[in-house]
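ERR on first pass: missing label on line 2. Operator R.T. fixed the label and resubmitted. Corrected input:
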Amino acid sequence: MTMPQVAPISKLKHKDLLGISDLTPDEILLILDTAEAMREIGERPIKKVPALRGKTIVNLFFEASTRTRTSFEIAEKRLSADTLNIAAQTSSLVKGETLVDTALNLEAMAPDMIVLRHAYSGACHLLSRICQAGIINAGDGMHEHPTQALLDAFTIREHKKRIAGLKVAIVGDLLHSRVLRSNVQLLTKLGADVWVSGPPTLMPPGIERQGVRRTTSVDEAIEGADVVMLLRVQLERMQGAFFPSLREYFNVFGMTRERLRRAKSDVIIMHPGPMNRGVEIDSDVADGPDSVILEQVANGVAVRMAVLYLLAGGAEHETAA
Amino acid sequence: MRRLLKGGRVVDPANGRDGSFDILIDGERIARVGKDLPADGAQVIEVPANFVVTPGLFDMHVHLREPGQEHKETVATGTASAVAGGFTAVACMPNTSPINDNAGVTEFILQKAAHANLARVYPIGAVTKGSKGEQLSDIAELRAAGCVAITDDGWPVRTALMMRRALEYASMFKMPVLEHCEDPSLKGEGVANEGYHASVLGLRGIPGVAESIMAQRDIALAEMTGGTVHICHMSAATSLRAVREGKQHGARVTCEVAPHHFTLTDESLATPVSYDTNMKMNPPLRTASDRDEMLKGIADGSVDVIATDHAPHHYDEKKMEFDLAPFGIVGLETCVSICFARLIQPGVITLTRMIELLSTNPARILNVPAGTLSEGALADISVLAPDLQVTVDPSRFKSKARNTPFGGWQLKGGVAATIVGGRTVYVNDHASGAERFCP
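pass 2 clean. output:
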C-alpha cells in the first residue's frame, strides 16, 4: 500500500483561512497530516486537549448551517477554546447593522478567531481587512468553503492513500457551489484529474481554465473514476429555470447504482450535504457500501481542529503530529 | 476685464488649430485668437510652453446626486470636482431623488449650479416619468427648463415601443436619447463581468451581450425613426460592433466610453483577490479583449466621446459586501491623467483627437455652446500639463466621494488650470507655472 503524501513543513504562516486559493500544496498536506493526529483525540474517552485554552473563538453564522457550525463548535471545544455562537439573519442589513459594524463590535471584545459563514462571496475578505482576529471561512456565498474541501481531501486520502493521479468526478449544480470552487482549487493543486459535469446552464463560465475537464455527459465524467462527488441541486436557487424539472434532472444527472458501474470498482461516493435524495443522488447510492458521506462528516471535526490549531495555536506549540 | 493668454500649445479641433497661439479673453467670451496679439491693456498671462490650451473639457455623463443624495455629492462639490479635473462643463444624469422628470427639478439643479458658480451644468431629463418606463416625461417642458437630452440612465428604457416613441418625440427638439444599454433579464443579479474571474470569485456575472443586445435594439430603432441615440458608458466589444454597423448604415448613433473601461479589466478583481468594491461598476470591467476593442474604437473614430460616468458614493455604502455595495466610481478628477497615460503616451491617439473626445464631440452631440475656441465663443478653457507627475490621492479630491480604483496610481499628465466664462475657477498648486492663471 502506498504511503500518503506528507507535508515537509510544520507551520502555517497565515492569520486567516479565506480560501484554498491562498494555500500551497505543502500547507494543504500539513493540515491533512495534523488532522490525522487530531482524529485520535476524538477517539479517546476524554475528548479534550488544552491546545487552545484561553483562546476565544466566535462562530458568526449569517446563513443557516447545522453540519458546519456544529462541527466547528465540537472542534473548538475539543481543543478547550472558549467558544460562542452568533446566528444572525441572512443579511446583516436586516438587523440594520452592517457586517463591518458587527465585526468591529465583536473585535472590540478581542476574540482570537472568527469563524464566518455568510451568504455573499468575499465577506471573509472584508472581515479580514478590518479585524485583528484570524478569520476562518466557513462558506462565503458561491466563493469558497475551504474546510469542506479539506475534509473531502482527508476522506479521499484515507481511502485512496493519495490524491495525485486520482480521477475525481464532481457532478451537480456547479454554478452556485462554493464546495466545487474549493475542491477544484485543492484537488488540482494536489494533482488529481478533476472532471466536472452538470447541465450547461449550471456550468461556471471559464471553469476549464482552472485545470479541470468539463463535460455534460455524466457517464463520461464518471468513467473509471476513483471518486464521485455529488453536489446539491440548490432547490432554493432554481426559480431561474436552469433545467426543466427535478425528474428530468434525475434522469440525466442523478447518480444511480446502474450508472455507477462505469466508475472504478472501489469508487467512493461523496456528498457535502444536505442531500436531495432522488434528485442528485439515488438513496441506494447514498446508503450503499461505496458511500463515505457520513465519514466526511466525522472527518470534518478533525480537519477543523487541525485548522483551528494551526491558525490559533500553531505558532506557540509544536505541531501535534 | 480682458485677459491675454500668450503662447502655450493651443489644440482646438473645431478650428483645426494645433500650435502656439495667443487668446484674448474679453469678459466671458473669446475676443481674438491669433499669433502675437497685442496686450492692449489686457492682463497678460504668459502660458508656459509645455502647457496645452484647449476648449473647455465637457463630461457629458456625471451623477451630481442632488437633489436627494447629498451625502454622496452635491452640485457644488460635483462641480468643484469637475473643474479640478479640467472640466468646464458637465451634463448631469436625472437619477436623483426625486428623478429629474419635470421642470422643477431641472430648475433646482440649475439654481444650485449658478450658486456654486464653477463648472457649467447641463441637466439631462428623464425619458419617462420616474424613469419607470411607463409614460413619457413632459419633454418640451424639460427642454424649456434647460435639459439638453433625455435618458433613464441607471436603467434602460424598458420596452422597444417606449424607446421608439422617445426617439420619435425627442427628434422634434433635436434632442438625443441617451441609453443605458442593459437587458435586465440577462443582467439578473450580476455584479461583475461574466467570465473566468467572476466565476472563480463566486460572483454573479453580467455578460457583455446584456449591453450589446440593447444597443442593437436601440440602433435599429434610431435607424427606423430617424431619431438620435447615444450609447452611454459602452464596455463590450459586441456593442462597439453594433455601433460601427449602425453608423455604416446611416443610423444616428453615437457612443461614449469611460476611462475605466479603456484602462482596467475584470482581472483587476482577482489581482489580488480583495473584493474591492471600487472595482464594482455598471457596466462592469470587461475582458482584456473588450478593453482593447474600446481602445481601437477610440483610435479609429468609432467612439465619439470619453465620459467618466462619475458616480460618487459615500464610503459607508462602499464598505460593504461586494454584492451589496452600489455600482459606480468617481471619475472627474482622474480622467485627464488617465487619458494622457493610456491614450497619449502609448500613441493610441493624438492630442487633437483626445480633445475631440473630451470637448468638441460631446458639445456637438448635446448641442451646447462649448467645445470650441472660436472668436465670440464662451471663454471656457482648459489648460493641461502633459508633463505633470500626478499621484492619485483620493483624500485630496474635491468630490465628496473617494470611490476610485485609481488611488495611489502614478500618472504623467494632468490639469494646470480651468477657466469658465473668462474666470479662473481652478489652479493646480502642484503644476508649476499654473499660478500665473490665478485671478
